[in-house]
Write a structure and sequence with these properties.
With about 325 residues, the protein is of the alpha/beta class. About 35% of the residues lie in helices and about 15% in strands. The chain starts with 5 loop residues before the first helix and ends in a 24-residue tail after the last strand. The relative contact order is 0.14.
Length: about 325
């Protein structure tokens, strides 16, 4: 009823690797299509060779409630989180998109982290499961999909059985995603921009919406509706995230209009308000998001009729909106 059995996933992983291993020698895993020989240590846009670099693997309580198990995140404290399971988040270094305002710039731009073997990654997955993780949440997996699949092959053989979350920026290739059918249980993509000029300015990817929209349709084909267990924890499905940017409500409305026409009746939407200018944020975006801007987009989302809609609470200064610090042992714990 829920996730595929480990044996079934092992077969799917072997099939996927048989098709994808060619990308180690001429990488075209993402729309950048750098074509570099990653086996020889050459890196492309993502600044990553043939091994995955992992920054942190933690029980994370800041994801959507069906992933973290929290139903009132705004009222949660470290004390009340004790005993909660959380999402088993694995934060990988490097990124194939590199948004200039990225809150995770320490790992996406600066590549903080350490290279891990497939065995080490597999042990980390099993450790998260042992510590009560509700799922294995692969954060920014696109550019290191091959080493992740190699690690999953080991982890499933060693008893991994909780749902697998593919937490992506949305800048994907559909022909690559098709190989994940039957492996990924929950897709958690962003749908960031509609305008090519906006995505060029903020992410050097004028083709972002073209790629993200077709990718989301493929994810929707594989996992259209969120399926929950008796605890209201997601076991399968698609949850689409959209971050509202300052001064860009019209672009957000165009994104939601497209999503509403193509997958709202089955899909969950997470509408995020946590924008903060970080790292290389360009002029014109170096201010916080205003409440009125966010609420305007919320109104559009309500009109679209999404099967589930997650809305972040006010005020925007809540703990939920604090910037993570990947220099800490746990980036999401603040003293």
């Amino acid at each position: 009823m829920f996730a595929e059995m480990p044996g079934q996933k092992l077969e799917k992983i072997d099939e996927a690797l048989a098709h994808l291993l060619e990308h180690e020698r001429e990488c075209r895993l993402c729309p950048r299509e750098c074509g570099v020989d990653r086996k020889s240590g050459i890196t492309g846009f993502c600044q990553t060779a043939d091994r995955a670099s992992l920054s942190h693997a933690v029980l994370h309580f800041g994801e959507e409630p069906p992933l973290s198990g929290l139903h009132d995140c705004a009222k949660e404290t470290e004390k009340t989180r004790a005993g909660r399971s959380g999402s088993g988040a694995m934060f990988f270094s490097g990124c194939n998109l590199k948004c200039r305002y990225c809150q995770n710039y320490q790992i996406s731009w600066l590549n903080q982290g350490r290279e891990r073997s497939a065995n080490e990654l597999a042990r980390q997955m099993i450790a998260l499961q042992t510590n009560g993780a509700l799922n294995i949440n692969l954060v920014s997996p696109t550019h290191i999909l091959i080493p992740i699949l190699k690690a999953l092959r080991i982890a499933y053989a060693d008893g991994l059985h909780i749902p697998l979350v593919y937490n992506s920026n949305g800048y994907e290739k559909t022909d690559v995603l098709r190989h994940l059918d039957g492996i990924v249980d929950i897709f958690l993509p962003d749908c960031k921009y509609f305008s090519p000029e906006l995505s060029r300015t903020l992410s050097e990817a004028p083709d972002y919406f073209r790629c993200a929209s077709t990718s989301i349709l493929e994810m929707h084909r594989q996992r259209p509706a969120v399926i929950y267990d008796e605890r209201d924890i997601a076991q399968k499905g698609l949850i689409i995230r959209h971050l509202v940017l300052p001064g860009q409500s019209e672009d957000s409305i165009k994104v939601l209009d497209w999503l509403g026409r193509h997958c709202a009746d089955e899909t969950a939407l997470s509408l995020m308000s946590q924008y903060k200018p970080c790292h290389k944020t360009p002029p014109g975006f170096q201010r916080p998001l205003e409440v009125e801007e966010y609420n305007r987009v919320v109104e559009k989302a309500l009109d679209c009729g999404f099967a589930t809609l997650f809305i972040q609470p006010e005020p925007f200064t809540s703990e939920e909106h604090r910037t993570p610090d990947f220099d800490r042992k746990n980036p999401f714990e603040w003293s």
